[in-house]
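Lay summary. Proteins are chains of building blocks that fold into shapes, and those shapes determine what they do. In this project we predict the shape from the chain. Here is one chain we studied, written as its sequence of building blocks.
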Amino acid sequence: MRAHSLPRRVRSWLTPALLLFGAVLTAVPASAQVYIPPPDDLIEDLPVLPSAIDPGIAPPAPPPPSAPVTMTADEAKAEARGLGSTLRGAYEGLTQAPGAAGQIPGYQDTYPGQTSYYTNSEAMQSDGAVAGWNSEAYQTANSTTRPTVDITRGDLSRATAIEADPNAYLDGMSADGSTGSCTPLPPGSGAANTAEWTCHVGSSVVEQPRTCTRSLAVAEWNDTLYQYLCVTAAGFDGCASLAGNAMCHKTASYPVPEYGLTVDYYDCDSPVSDPGAYLMGTLPKPPPAGAFQVVSNVYRCNREGIAAALTFDPVTGTPLQYLTGLQQCGSIGSNASCTATSATAAGLAERSLCKTWDFIGDPFGGGSLYCLEPAVPEEVYVCTANVAGMTAESSISKWFVETWTDNACAIDLGSCTYASEQCTAVNETRVISGVAVTRPCWEMTETYQCQTVVGGGNDCGTLEATAGCSQTREICLDDPPRSDGACDVLERVYTCPIPGTVQEPTQYICGGDVYCVNGECEAVEREASDEFKDAVVALNALGQANAEFDEAALTLFRGTRESCSHKVFGLSNCCSGKGIPLLTPWLCSSAEKLLDEKDDAGLCHKVGTYCSSSFLGICVTKKDVYCCFQSKISRILQEQGRPQIGKPWGKPKTETCEGFSIFEFQQLDLAAMDFSEVYADFMEAAKLPDEAAALVQIQQKIADYYAAHKP
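And here is the predicted shape, written in a compact code that computers can read:
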């Protein structure tokens, strides 16, 4: 960008700064991209400055004579002011005196040879780098151990406050300045020790678990296959009912030419009633895929040690049958393949054994036996394997099929998500069709997480109870907003102290900072200027504009849109804010972690917040949107330049972080911008005049003078 394209007020401000501090520019780090425009009024070559002759410094004036006894306080004050004005006048022309150039460290009399950079500004970067590394001044300026003084605009405002009302800070001073009170200074800018914290009030979406079950249904496979034979001939179709039946399929066909007919064979899944179809027989139908076979052995035994006994009628007690070869139960009950059941369930007849009998009536006249002591009822077991030493009452081999059936369940899949599944009936054995069937799981319980809207949510209690926190604003997160103006979810923003930081200590002005004569004191007048710092920052801003110029879009200082997420009324928070560590870094993406680092470095501007996901109109997750730039200066130019030209930030949901057009940048007034945030960065790059150290020396000389002239 050439100089004639800049606003007039910027060029007129930069030219004097360049002429006064041209010798210092070589000490600026080579990484800064700076373009120096030529002066508008450069018509002829500049005259050669006088040779570097040390003009010397006038000897200090003698100390003021002791004030006569008859001198009044006003006269003493006037004399002191006169003396100060005389000394100021003696030194005002020092920079214009012959040989003044010799007082500038590192100055060379080849000036203005450096004007060659007016038409070849690109050479400044390489030449400056070479000169910097070979310069003691550059090495001193870039030393990490040298002392620096951070003078901010906040410090200047404190000095202005004292200048406006010095008496408010000088009460109680003695005539010689040796005693008096110290008055606290106005608070300085200091480092930020507060940050913004957010909380939420209103309706919240909570997740509640709900369950549904699925049951395993097992049934015996006992389908029958029906085999039919039929005949077809000219004028006769005995296979019509079989050929047209969906439950039947032809398996074979044999023509009989000598009789002019054909014999067909069919297998059917169900019976067919047709005189023309002849049923040859039935077969068990082969089990389908997924069916399983269970072998069932039924054992009956007793624990009374009875090997032979009569059975009896439990109602009348009369004997029924004499049995031998009765088996003992032993350890069959602990056999893993056996399951206890009842005789009826196992398909056996119920019976009762008798241990002791008695005879009732006349043995010769029609008496009868009566069971006096019944035995303990027999036990019946169904086993899927043979039990050694025992004979099975019955042995059955059956095929079974199984299907899972969903039980009745009121789950809305629109608001519920599947979470997990667990078997709640494990390895049970059940008797089905007289056979003990064991399956790994008979019932599955499915768990769902279902979202429900609950009112009255409020997680602001902690911030409200924290000392030093104050609410600054509220933001409605409803998207879209309600038509009646109400808000379902409010975000409250609080300003709170950052944990671990301390308030800047109070500073005072005391007797050493005043000049006193006969009990009347005045503050030492000091004037500070930040024009040099403003000029350096502005120059860097122009260099940054050259580096960030987008040739495709013809814009300057374009940012990148970045965002982080925060669950409303939840733990997950990837938007900590400047100076605050992430609360849940393990839940944040790498892009969100990088955004937090950029924000802490001062490269990002927060555009705002919007609701990124909702349920039934209630915000569940919000997003904070930032525009991040390549440097602090780019961010400051965007933040302070947009209000100057009436270019507001867009809505958080749609902001694209576009840059300035060339026309928009030409309208910016850099002189009206506050660059105090980046002064410290430039003070590390160039050693500025140590005005504060000089003032300390002056104060010490005044104190020494009064110490030597005490009465």
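What the prediction tells us: The longest strand covers residues 194-221.
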